[in-house]
What does this fold into?
Amino acid sequence: MKNHHGLIRLLAPLLLVSILSGCSTSGIEAIGKPDDADLAKQLLIHNDALAKKITISEMRSRKVGGLLEVNLTLTNLTSRDKTLAYRFSWFDADGFEVEAETDAWTPLNLHGAQSVSVRGVAPNDSVKSYRLNVKGQ
It folds into this structure.
């Protein structure tokens, strides 16, 4: 239990807690903009109950062959298994979504206290930022 509190304290500066009405997801969103250090890691939480059970504990990105590749680690903060789904959204330099909603929701079973990496690759080289949406099933 102490390890979970330490992880939460470590991630506290990264958390931006917000309850928004009319959101496209009722879970957690991670927003990454690798070129801007101040905005590189943000979490938007739309479901406080899920946010107390699941966290995005690490966000990494790089360019591979001109395409943005991201790797995020989802961590189950509880001892119970969680059934989730996640989906990436990709945005160009002007903030417009690239190939909107072409990525399907990917199911994910996250066992108690487990951490799992999820990876996404942008559909083309115009992508400058991304969003990972996570929702409970």
